[in-house]
Amino acid sequence: MRRYTVVRFVPSALHPQSRKTACLHEQDYLAIPYGRIALYGGQNGGPHGSALPDQVWRRQRVATIGELSDFSVTDLITVVSQRKRTGRLMIKTGGNEAGLFFEDGLLVRVASGDIALRIGRMLIRQNLVDTPRLLEALHMQAESGEDTPLGEVLLRKGWITQADLHRCLEEQSIEVLTRAMSSQAGVFTFDAGVRVSRSGDFPPMDPITLLKIAVERTSALSVLKERLPSAVTPFFLNVSPATVVDLQVSMDPPEAIVLGILRNGPVTFPELANMSALDELTLGAAILTLLELEYIATASQLAPGARTLSPARAS
Predict the structure, then answer these.
(1) How many other CB atoms are found less than 10 A from the CB of residue 227?
(2) 3-state secondary structure 222-254
(3) What is the pTM of this model?
(4) Residues of the chain with pLDDT under 70
(5) Lower Cβ count inside 10 Å, N or C end of the chain?
């Protein structure tokens, strides 16, 4: 049995025959089968002749639902920006969900279910706030009982500046887009008209500029992952744990963080990404550096006698 969803807009390049109506009639709708996008014509049903009931077409607010294999993240952001849409774009890939909120085509807020992409982690990654202050701000946010963004709590305390927050939110947005574009499969939902409360003095972001950076980062990440072992391959320390502290002093922060985590036992790339505050590109570069220096290794590369297991894994 065929399932349908209702969409409110579609790029003219996807359906050349809809170019005229898409440009002239803002309220036109399209009916698409679940899993692929197709344009239906005819005299019966909705505006484009679908078999959906007439009352469906009269709804004031409808959601655009589809799969990223049919409608890429790049296409989605471009359409929302160029058409100056207001609403919430939800992207779900690999079990993680991210929400991008737009006003008149500009990005005003990003939310992510991935703990590595949450604003607190991003602030620590960029050395804008330390862990004790972050924990205190999270406690204040919970105690207030209000839906106040964490960034605004930190601003009120004077622990970060508007420029710090803006830079961090830009990085968060780029990372969300990069991870979404790197995934092979996923689904999206765009809820038109949905608005989110935000600080009046916080400038909105240009999604096209962020998208260009995310595309470049996605390409670099793809090249990097070709040189890395598979995601299920654990990394081990290839040096004595007693020498790790001395090595960390001489290494850059990303490499030092990886060495510190591996002191507790072998972990995979995804586990390192969750345990560290590093983005995937920085983490991948750090792992390659440590592999080339032979400070870490995979099981097949490990020097005899150097293999160590954490208590949890050993048991």
Answers:
(1) 10
(2) HHHHHHCCCCCCCEEECCCHHHHHHHHHHCCHH
(3) 0.64
(4) 1-62, 115-116, 146, 184, 198-202, 303-315
(5) N
DSSP β-bridge partners for residue 96: 93
Q: How far apart are CA 13 and CA 125, in angstroms?
A: 40
Q: Which two tokens stand for residue 104?
A: 């008149």
CA 132/CA 261 separation, integer angstroms: 20
Neighbours of 49 (CB within 10 A): 14
CA angle 130, 132, 137 (to 5 degrees): 95
Smallest Cα–Cα separation from 128: which of 153, 157, 164, 152?
164
112 touches 122 (CB < 8 A): no
C-alpha span between 169 and 108 (Å, rounded): 9
Contact criterion met (CB below 8 Å) for 125 and 131: no
- pLDDT tens across 171-186, in order? 888 888 888 887 768 8
Q: To 5 degrees, how large is the angle CA 69–CA 112–CA 266? A: 90
Contact 3, 26 (CB under 8 A): no
AA letter at 158: G
- 264: which 2 tokens? 């507790």
